[in-house]
Amino acid sequence: MSIVTTSSEANGNVSAATARAAASAAASAPQPVTFAKALNTALRDAMNQDNAVTIFGEDVGVLGGVFRITDGLTAEFGKSRCFDTPLAESGIVGMALGMAMNGMRPVIEMQFDAFAYPAFEQVASHVAKMHNRTKGKLPLPMVIRIPYAGGIGGVEHHCDSSEAYYAHTPGLKVYTPATVTDAYRMLREAIDSPDPVVFLEPKKLYWSKDTVDLEALRLEHENKATPSMEGKAAIARPGTDATLIAYGPSVSTAMAAAEAAAAEGRSLEVIDVRSIVPFDDETICASVRRTGRAVVIAEAQGFASVASEIVARVQERCFHSLAAPVLRVTGFDVPFPAPKLEKYYLPSVDRILDTVDQLQWEENA
């Protein structure tokens, strides 16, 4: 018995096969991923890889966190590995400290930046000093996740930029990612670190998106296929006329300023600090030596800030390459304002461009 296939049937089979292939390709291709999803996936992958990774904090369990960064982890791993705590930040950090001293890898969430202040004594007196106190015999692998900074229309105690407190405390590493890819990679590295890491997550970036292959990032990390990001800044945008140095929530603002400057014929390089402690002097100073001018951008108040430290380090190391003093665009030295005033407080494209204009261009024409 012969089977005859008509041309229309053949075309239909080809079309169906093409559609299946296209669907398969679309499913395997990198997809738009939010900053929050990258962090959630990093936590999930770390928990899958290492049973010692345990997550806890206020509302991180069933609710999945205020910003849903821990969404689904309690359901997947159980209440013994992702659980809620009382509203007692000092107790949360103290418990994590004890767990890390005994072989666990706790990842705790402070919920909001200023909510961490009641725990600061534990952080400064014990978490940061335990390795030194034991003459290096006792590592302390723990991560303190802190959603921080403004840009969400919040109020004080919900929008602080508290990085200077932690950066000033010897014994802590301080990371703050600014891209979806870095959110995943840096959180995985923080969890793997034998030292305590304060992991600052810019709240306004939680809903930002980028096309990222999270599975590829997982394989790269677990196979150690990429260099460590610890103490490594990144050139987010090449340029020749001046260097904009930013970190965390200010990187996107710096990038927008560089784009606006390009339309006016000025080429600005953007450096994403990424790792505040340890700090990458080499990458940042190499950029400033090339361009001869620099502006440091940060949301935190300018006085006695991380921005102040960056300015000092650049001035000391690049003095003979500078065509103008290093300037800053920061938050003002006042408590974080009410939501309607937030736009006046935070660094903006206009403030950055106005500051770039002050870099003594006429004297060096």
UniProtKB/TrEMBL annotation:
Domain Transketolase-like pyrimidine-binding: start-end pairs: 33-208
State its cofactor.
Answer: thiamine diphosphate
Question: Is Transmembrane helix found in the keyword set?
Answer: no
Organism encoding this protein:
Paeniglutamicibacter cryotolerans
Entry EC no(s)? 1.2.4.1
Q: Which GO molecular function, any one, fits this protein according to its record? A: pyruvate dehydrogenase (acetyl-transferring) activity
Q: Which UniProt keywords apply?
A: Oxidoreductase, Pyruvate, Thiamine pyrophosphate
PANTHER family of this UniProt entry? PYRUVATE DEHYDROGENASE E1 COMPONENT BETA SUBUNIT, PYRUVATE DEHYDROGENASE E1 COMPONENT SUBUNIT BETA
InterPro entries assigned to the protein according to its UniProt record, in alphabetical order: THDP-binding, Transketo_C/PFOR_II, Transketolase-like_Pyr-bd, Transketolase_C
Q: What is the name of the protein in this document?
A: Pyruvate dehydrogenase E1 component beta subunit
| The keyword Lyase is annotated on this UniProt entry | no
